């Protein structure tokens, strides 16, 4: 492995840190858009960003852009290379997971137009634009698949994508409030708790929350999941009205009502749903 500079520094400019460049073929490449160094990890080229920070140790983070390494200003570059090599297994695992997650998100991206599909309660739902429609309506598909359904929206066939998305989201939120209310009422009786207020959330990563006052927040995007997963989130938040923590007593309460909660929790974490 030889080291060459990424670029030459001009007069009055700070020199860019040198980069370790592979001299043999690589299996795959992961490149951070602001990479200042490259290194070969188990036959894979990883170009990563070095961030100089006021800290005592070297830190690693893998996000959508790739690998970033934060290091104290006094740590020499060869020590950063050694640290990256030492964490190679973890780094490659996270890079592969991030790339696969991005691929999955792209595969479920919704093309907002007449005939678009999106998951509704775990099943595909097709959007049909019909300016003659009085209001948004869910109906069985007229085709051979009796389980497939259609959402008819009161919009012209050439409606703008943003307008279609807004109409679908408004309908989903209406459906979510109705379903969540019914499931909260159902499980609150089993748990012997009383919820007082339901709010719909649009959080990017959080599916629900509960406060000791009895207020419950549930993410309307849960409507993409099958009903059993939604029930798990409802039971989870209602159980917090008894125990405002994740103690063994809390999980025992969840388990009493929903013995398969662990599998449902994994599905909630692993299943990829469309971004809005």
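^ Assign residues to that structure.
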């Amino acid at each position: 492995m030889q080291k060459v500079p990424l670029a030459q520094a001009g007069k009055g400019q700070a020199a860019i840190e040198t980069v370790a460049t592979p001299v043999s073929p690589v299996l795959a490449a992961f490149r951070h858009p602001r990479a200042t160094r490259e290194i070969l990890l188990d036959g894979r080229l990883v170009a990563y960003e070095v961030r100089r920070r006021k800290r005592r140790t070297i830190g690693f983070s893998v996000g959508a852009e790739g690998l970033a390494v934060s290091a104290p200003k006094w740590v020499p570059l060869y020590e950063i290379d050694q640290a990256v090599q030492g964490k190679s297994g973890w780094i490659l695992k996270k890079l592969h997971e991030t790339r696969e997650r991005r691929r999955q998100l792209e595969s479920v991206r919704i093309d907002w137009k007449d005939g678009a599909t999106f998951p509704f309660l775990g099943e595909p739902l097709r959007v049909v634009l019909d300016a003659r429609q009085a209001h948004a309506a869910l109906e069985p598909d007229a085709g051979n698949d009796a389980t497939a359904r259609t959402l008819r929206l009161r919009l012209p066939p050439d409606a703008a994508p943003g307008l279609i998305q807004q109409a679908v989201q408004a309908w989903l939120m209406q459906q979510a409030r109705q379903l969540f209310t019914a499931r909260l009422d159902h499980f609150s009786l089993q748990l012997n708790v009383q919820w007082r207020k339901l709010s719909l959330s649009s959080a990017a990563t959080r599916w629900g929350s509960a406060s000791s006052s009895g207020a419950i927040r549930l993410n309307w995007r849960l409507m993409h999941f099958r009903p059993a997963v939604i029930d798990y989130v409802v039971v989870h938040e209602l159980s917090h009205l008894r125990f405002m923590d994740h103690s063994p007593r809390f999980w025992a309460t969840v388990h009493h009502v929903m013995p398969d909660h662990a599998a449902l929790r994994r599905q909630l974490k692993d299943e990829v749903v469309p971004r809005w």
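DSSP finds six helices and 14 strands in the chain.
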